Amino acid sequence: MTRGATAVLISHRFSSVRHADNIVVLADGRVIEQGGHDQLLAANGRYADLFRLQAERFAEDEAESESVDVADLAGDSVTDDEAAQPAAVR
């Protein structure tokens, strides 16, 4: 983001802060954790909990956006159970 300078980034998106040299986690106006991304994950504290939660939700959103309705592609009405089976079984 910046080289040879100090930048303060306030974000709720972990993808924005994970490459920072120093991450400060605040709760109720107080510093509760501080360190690099890998260090905070290894500490298994609040940062790690929130990072994993956000990563799981991102993965779920990605999976939903990539799913394709087989009936839309085929132009016919295929049930979800039928779509899950190989074509030779139908």
3D architecture notes:
It contains 5 helices and 2 strands. Mean pLDDT is 78; it is low at 83-90. The chain has one domain. α2 packs across α3 (46-66). By secondary structure, the chain is an alpha+beta fold. The chain has a two-stranded antiparallel ribbon with strand order 1-2. The termini are far apart.
What secondary-structure arrangement, pairings included, does this model have?
Layout: H1 14-17, E1 23-27, E2 30-35, H2 37-43, H3 46-66, H4 70-74, H5 80-83
Antiparallel strand pairs: 1-2
What is this structure, in a nutshell?
The protein has 90 residues and is α+β, with helices and mostly antiparallel strands.
Give the low-confidence spans.
83-90
Morphology: globular
Topology as a string of helices (H) and strands (E): HEEHHHH
Provide the β-strand percentage band: 5-15%
If you average the pLDDT, what whole number results?
78
Number of domains: 1
Summarize the biggest pleated sheet.
2 strands, antiparallel
**What is the straight-line distance between the termini?**
54 Å
User: What share of the residues lie within helices?
Assistant: 40-55%
Query: How are the strands ordered across the major sheet?
Result: 1-2
Helix count from the secondary structure assignment:
5
SSE-based structural type: alpha+beta
The gyration radius over C-alpha positions equals: 21 Å
Strand elements, count: 2
